[in-house]
Every structure is written in C-alpha cells, then in structure tokens.
Amino acid sequence: MNFCASWDFIEDVRRSNSLVELEAICVRFTRSAGFAHFGFAAQSFSGRSAKNYTYFHNVPEPWGQHRYEKIYTSSLSAQQDPLMIHLRAGLSATAFSSRGIVSHTRPDIARRSRRVLQQAGDYGMKSGVFAPLMSSGSNWSFMVMTSADTTDVREILPSLPDFLFFAHHIFCAARLHSGKWTRPTAQLNDHECEILRWCAIGKTSWEIGQILGLAECTVNYHLQAAARKLGVKGRRAACAQAIMLDAITL
What we know:
Blueprint: H1 3-15, H2 19-32, E1 37-43, E2 53-57, H3 63-71, H4 75-80, H5 82-88, E3 94-97, H6 107-121, E4 127-132, E5 140-147, H7 153-156, H8 160-177, H9 190-200, H10 205-212, H11 216-230, H12 235-244
Antiparallel strand pairs: 1-2, 1-5, 3-4, 4-5
Helix pairs in contact: 1-2, 1-8, 5-6, 8-12, 9-11, 9-12, 10-11, 11-12
C-alpha cells in the first residue's frame, strides 16, 4: 500500500463518529494492506480500572475472546504477555511470524513470544505486524494486523511505516469516541507546524532541515517539543495527533 492509498483511510478515520465506524475502517484497511485480521486495544484512556479498557477486532474465535476479553483485561496476565512486555519496554513497531521470529525486539521477548505466536498460527494468524501506541493519557495501547500467509518477516517489514501511521490515527480517534478523553488545544508554533507537515508526508529530519534551512538537531528538537505539547511520544504519533486536531493540513 502506498502513502496516497493509506491517506484515504486516514481521512475516513478523521471523519468517523464512533468506535463501530473505526472497526469497519480497520477491516477495510487491513484487507487493503494484504492482511486478514486486526486487533486494537487500549487500557486506561482515563484511570487504570478494567472499565477503562477499549477494544475491537475481527480475530477468529475463541482466540479473539481469549486474548481481548481475558488476557488484556487481567493486569497480571497482561504484564506477563510477551507483546505487552515489548510494548512496556518502549520498543518500536515489529513484524512477527508463527515460527517465533520477531523483529525489533529483545532476544528474551522473542523467546517468550514463540509459544503465543505458534498458538495464534493455529487460528490462521501466521504472520503480522504489531504497533505499540502510547501517550500521556494512556496506560498502554496497541494495534496488530495478521495474515494467514507463512510470509517471511523480512517481506512484511516494508508495511510497518504506513501501518504505524494509520494505527496512531485509530488511537487518537478511539480516545475521542470512547468518551473518556476531551480534545485538547495544541499550542504549536509556526516552526513546529511546518516541520510536522513535512514529517507527515514522509520526510526525514535531515530532508526537512535541507528544505527549511535548519540543522537536523534543530528539526528533532521541534519535533520533540511538538510531541510533548500534543501529549504523545514519537514523530508519527505527533503527526497523527496534529492532523486529528486540525493543527496541520496536508
């Protein structure tokens, strides 16, 4: 999927009015990206009790119920789950296979993941991508897409950037639609808005610096400042949040 194609889905996310609509958009995005199933879960948009748990998915049953209604609603089980360990360790988006191969993670987490991934493979989820999603108003959140294909992890790594950008938009919209978060007012300055615009269309910090006549470290400084103001972590999350808040337009 190219950037233009994924942007159509992001526009749908921005126009959505409910979690039900988000779920339908996720189904369409997942299929368009060449995957079969998806899952989204967020614990504590406000507070840490189980009632603040939000999720939606189209994962085959009973695996979906086991994961989203049992594992992730139990604090103890969630803390021991390898995907949660990866998320809480502050690691990046990752690709995985039912053979126990996981990219962008620690060796100990990869070892712990093998049994879970093999079990997921029994339900037709043999490879996929996983995006940790964090902000100042969330205890933890993630989105995952899986495929029935026994694809080599290296072949699905190129799908991570568009998937991660889309997942951050789903996260922002889910916070609004859950009724547990109010839309903040982002006080971004002109430099931050301009840099976020270039970042949102895929430019690197070095490329943005060349365009605007700034040092790469200065660009990174403005991106970090914007992320703090928007209450998120990371440049993709900052871009997604700024777009959702209409702080920038593309």
